[in-house]
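Handoff note, outgoing to incoming analyst
You'll be picking up this chain. Sequence as last confirmed:
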Amino acid sequence: MKDQTVLKPIKICIDAAMTVIFLLLMGYHLLNGVTHEWLGVSLFVLFIAHNALNYKWYLALFKGKYGAIRFIQTAINFLLLIAMISCIVSAISISGHVFTWLNASSVSFGRELHLLATVWAFILMALHLGLHWSYFVGKATKIVKTSDTVSLILRWVFRAIVLAICAYGCYNFIVRKLWEEMFLMAEFKWFDYEKSVFLYFIESLSIMIMFATVSYYF
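Most recent structure output, in case you need it:
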């Protein structure tokens, strides 16, 4: 129990770092190649650390009963694992800087796989995050100790803010036509190179929150 208390802040820091890095990677066209590749390597290292720290989840896979929710949670986790592995494999095959020494270039296949794996990893990561939002909601509820009336007002204000963010996320999802990447419906993607990295970060964050919210309320 004491170990879990010590590890919890570490896990949260790793998850937060992974989220920020992934959001930056979504604006890869606004970063130089070297920066993008090293951020990708950092994300994968953190992903390995995340799984290592949560090894007990793997040990419990064949224990207990599987209801609908647990089945969906397990499916999302394994699909995310596959997507992340596909990201690094495809990244190695199209690397122009970090992994050139491996001579594992396969540009045509690598680009398609990387495009497909990245967008699905992003969405699955958001869904995975939403499955664990109850922990943070519970913590926030304990911190904000108010009367029932004030608590009710704050709850609805928060919901209104989240709804607005989700609407903005839905708008960005449509404008970016992310479904084209999800199902390889387009050979080329058009990017707005005039947009700042910060704005692209905020847009990606809104999309992530939208999927996380759907997952949480489901």
